[in-house]
């Protein structure tokens, strides 16, 4: 292996940036083609002061508030400085930079960023107003600061291209739908792809034979119905606003609500928070940034809501409402899979950490034949090693937790793929 075999994976979330650096290694059969060298995460970018963490595997680590970080570009610049100063890594040795791009439209595969790909991602920014612009800001920095590296975009939408037309279409004029690309694209695809592979390994069953209901519950939350190893349906739609509520996103509402909420709904929003100029209405802005459990209970932190819910009606409403919407999708997907489900999988910051939400959902789905959640296993997930942890007892449809890793998914696809 040459010495400059470093792969950087960058995941630009709505208010966070998660970065991992890997070294490509020779693979045997089932082993990972990359080895983790360091991780960094910058959160609270849109609610300063941003929190910066940097951890070298088997070495030093750093956790601090970084008031100088005010957007994704400055967050990434801060990371590059640290890479040089703290980890003594020469960034010219980075050969590939993998960027998670949430909306890829009809792109089926990852693409090396060139002018055309950049413009394509830019054109889709209005359909992922909390995401694509941030990814582009980081891509721009990489193109100028890391000229020796190839920047590659990996799309959240690609995994859902298997969704059949009667599920991905909306019941609207199909001529207009086709002209304007108005259909369900679905998101969190890199996460679902990672989870499918990990669960397949855990259950020792080929991915193509697996039927799963997967919940990716983070500040953006979605559910996915996987049949024979392919996405059959997912809860997000044309944009990541649809489906489950998120930290600041409404999830599905009656579309008419928009016009009763404010009489300025159709006017353009002048929010300057985004990295690229967005053309979104005030309604889209409100439903993306001033809704979700933040609007219901005053915080984006679902753990705080969970703790407060016994004595706080607003927190109780937020918790119960999220749980209710999750059940809508689990029930529908169970039916779409004809009741043949290998496992219900929890993932994302909330799915992986909320003992309470897993217990609650577990209790509700028991009537469908899911293995009851084992109290001790469920409470012990954090202390249990492994990518996949079983929280249900063995009989019935399995109940699993998967520590999803979009950065690793990209690095893996990059190293094994033909790019
Ligand atoms: N112990 C916990 N219980 C419930 N929710 C938690 C817990 N720890 C973290 N979270 C939630 O996980 C969210 C982050 O999830 P993550 O998947 O990393 O989000 P994203 O990638 O969408 O920014 C936090 O905003 C917080 O609400
Ligand atoms: C698609 C999406 O909502 O992503 P995230 O959860 O990272 O915000
Ligand atoms: Mg995320």
TrEMBL record:
UniProt xrefs under HAMAP family: Acetate_kinase (MF_00020)
NCBIfam families for this protein: ackA (TIGR00016)
Similarity annotation: Belongs to the acetokinase family.
Domain of life: Eukaryota
Enzyme Commission number(s): 2.7.2.1
Catalytic reactions of this protein: acetate + ATP = acetyl phosphate + ADP
Cofactor needs: Mg(2+)
Biological process annotations from GO: acetate metabolic process; acetyl-CoA biosynthetic process
Any coiled-coil regions, as ranges: none
An example Gene Ontology molecular-function term: magnesium ion binding
Binding, ATP: 18, 216-220
Keyword list, A-Z: ATP-binding, Kinase, Magnesium, Metal-binding, Nucleotide-binding, Transferase
Site (Transition state stabilizer): 188, 249
Signal peptide: none
Protein name per Swiss-Prot or TrEMBL: Probable acetate kinase
Residue sites binding Mg(2+) per the record: 11, 406
Pathway connected to this protein: Metabolic intermediate biosynthesis; acetyl-CoA biosynthesis; acetyl-CoA from acetate: step 1/2
């Amino acid at each position: 292996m040459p010495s400059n075999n470093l792969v950087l994976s960058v995941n630009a979330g709505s208010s966070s940036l998660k970065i991992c650096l890997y070294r490509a290694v020779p693979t045997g059969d089932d082993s990972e083609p990359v080895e983790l060298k360091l991780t960094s995460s910058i959160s609270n970018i849109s609610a300063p002061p941003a929190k910066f963490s940097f951890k070298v595997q088997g070495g030093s680590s750093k956790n601090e508030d970084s008031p100088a970080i005010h957007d994704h570009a400055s967050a990434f610049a801060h990371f590059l400085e640290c890479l040089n100063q703290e980890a003594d890594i020469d960034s010219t040795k980075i050969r590939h930079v993998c960027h998670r791009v949430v909306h890829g439209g009809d792109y089926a595969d990852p693409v090396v960023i060139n002018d055309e790909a950049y413009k394509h991602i830019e054109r889709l920014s209005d359909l992922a107003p909390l995401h694509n612009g941030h990814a582009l800001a980081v891509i721009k920095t990489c193109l100028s600061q890391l000229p020796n590296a190839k920047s590659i975009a990996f799309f959240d939408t690609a995994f859902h291209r298997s969704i059949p037309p009667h599920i991905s279409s909306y019941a609207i004029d199909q001529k207009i739908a086709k002209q304007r690309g108005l259909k369900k694209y679905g998101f969190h695809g890199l996460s679902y792809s990672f989870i499918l592979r990990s669960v397949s390994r855990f259950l020792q069953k080929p991915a193509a034979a697996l039927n799963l209901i997967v919940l990716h519950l983070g500040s953006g939350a979605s559910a996915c119905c996987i049949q024979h190893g392919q996405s059959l349906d997912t809860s997000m739609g044309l944009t990541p606003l649809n489906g489950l509520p998120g930290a600041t996103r409404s999830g599905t509402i009656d579309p008419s609500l928009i016009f009763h909420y404010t009489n300025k709904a159709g006017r353009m929003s002048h929010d300057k928070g985004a990295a690229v100029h967005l053309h979104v209405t005030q309604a889209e802005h409100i439903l993306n940034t001033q809704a979700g459990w933040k609007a219901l209970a005053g915080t984006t932190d679902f753990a705080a809501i969970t703790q407060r819910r016994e004595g706080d009606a607003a927190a109780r409403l937020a918790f119960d409402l999220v749980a209710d919407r999750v059940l809508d999708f689990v029930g529908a997907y169970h039916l779409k899979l004809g009741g043949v489900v290998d496992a219900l999988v929890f993932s994302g910051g909330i799915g992986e950490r909320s003992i309470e939400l897993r217990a609650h959902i577990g209790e509700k789905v028991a009537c469908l034949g899911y293995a009851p959640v084992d109290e001790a296993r469920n409470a012990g997930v954090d202390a249990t090693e492994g990518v996949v942890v079983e929280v249900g007892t063995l009989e019935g449809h399995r109940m699993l937790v998967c520590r999803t890793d979009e950065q690793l998914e990209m690095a893996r696809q990059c190293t094994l793929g033909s790019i």
